[in-house]
Every structure is written in C-alpha cells, then in structure tokens.
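Course assignment 3, question 2. Fill in each field.
Student: A.L.
Task: Predict the tertiary structure for the chain below.
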Amino acid sequence: MDSIRELLADPAFIKLLKLLLWIGVTVAVVTFFRRSARKRIENTVFRYKTQKLIEILGYFMIILLVILFVTVDNVRDYTIIIGLFTAGLTFTLQELILSVAGSFYIFAVRVYKPGDRIEINGITGDVIDIDSIYTTLMEIGAWVSTDNYSGRIVKISNAYVFKGPIHNYSLDFPFVWDELNVLITYQSDLEEAKRLVLQEANTLLAAYTTASTSKWKELVERYYIEDAALEPNVAVKLTDNWIQLNLRYITDYKKRRKMQQDLFERIESVFKSKGESVIFASSTLQLLKIPEVDVRMQSS
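Answer field:
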C-alpha cells in the first residue's frame, strides 16, 4: 500500500496518467468522427480519403501531446501553448479547414452531388467531381450563349458553400420555368395566335408537364411554398410596334435551349400555315424622301 501511495504521489506518474487520459480522449474523438464519416458519406473514394485524413490528424495530435508533456512541466504553460498553437494553426490553415468542413457539409446535407447543375461563386456548371478540398465543374456559359458548355473545367474550393448562395438546378425539382416571346402585328388575329401558341406548347411539353406535377407536389409537402401552375400559359403585352405574346412553360433544366428552338420552329410553321391571319412583327424603318426645292435666281 505504501508503494502505491508513493507511486500516486509521484509527479512523473501523475503526468503520465494525464498524458494517457488525453490520448484516450483523442482516440475516442477520432473514432467518433471516423464512424460518422463511414455512416454519412456514400461516395466510397471520398469516404476513404476522409477517414484517412481524420486518422492523420489524430496521430498528429497524439504526437503533439507527447511532445508537450515531455517538454512542459507546468500545466498552465501547457494549456497556453496548446491554445496558441491551435489558434495559429487555425489562422494559417483556415481556408483548408473550411474546405474540408465544406466537403463534410456537402455530403451530409446533400447540398449537391456529381451530375447536378449548380451555380456557385458566380460560376455555373455541371458537377463532375467532389473531393475533400475542391468541387470540379464543367463550366456552362462564359463566352458561349445559353446553356452550352464552354469547355473549361473549373475547380472551386468547398469553402464557398459557407460564403454565399448555391443555386442547384436539379436537387429536388429537376425542372425550370422558361419563357419565349412571340411578336405579332396589330393586324393579326390575337385570339387565334394565342390559341396556336398554347396548342403547340401543350403538344410539345405534355411529357414535362406530367412529370413535373408529381415532383412539385413533393416539393410543396416538403417546403413552405405555394402551389404553382405548371401548364404552359400566355401573357399579352401591347407595345408601340407590336403585340408581344409571352409564353411561359416548364422544361427539363438541361434542355432549355433545344426546347426554345423546337417551340419556335413549330410556332413559325403553324403561323405560316394560317396565311395572313397571323403575321410575325419586326422592327421597321421608313425613310421619307426630302421634297425637291426649286430655287431660281433673278437678275436685277
């Protein structure tokens, strides 16, 4: 018993117990995060990388604890050094830490996944890869029009999920509303034009209207959002030069450009078949001839 009391009173033994306790806490924390990553992350490659990163950080913390307990005698000095070291490490690696945290957030909350079309930090593109640091996009837009690929592959830090809004085109509702303006003259039959535009839109977009209806119902049940009309509709606007028929419709988020082209071709064809009853309008410029002036000079 005396030897046990002496051992418990020995400062070196107490220090060793504290070191073992800290190591045990570190191991428990590392184990908890590794298990959470294994349960929450579905992507096999990313899950493996995340678990390895957690293990490396755990080993680093254990080595640091051993070095501090061996070199520092005062507990107060130890806590101060740990605090300063942690603050310095956090400041130095803040972008990296945010990126790693962002990758956890992306997969845990399902902000987006490979294959989704998103807009982040002002860049629009299709997600082609997500790793522990970067999200890789195939860029859309830039110097090309509408929703075409530019050909550039863009890597964006995962930290941006905490810095601004993320527009996801396909997360819960893989459809978007789009508009097509059809211009007709004031001499055209307005009601006939509206009927023809809606007729062609309903025929071409019937499949999208049906598919989007069930998805929209799920969205209304999940979020606090009002119900919306999914069928194509036409709004009329009168201008100084023509009547504008604004066709609003729903389509697949990846087929906006093709759908606009198909709609316009069908509308153009059906308008032409109606002869003079519906005529497309365009800007015109009328040049007026300056009248001739006959100037005669009389001699005095």
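Instructor remarks: The chain has three domains: 8-92, 111-168, 175-273. The chain has a mean pLDDT of 80.
Grade: pending
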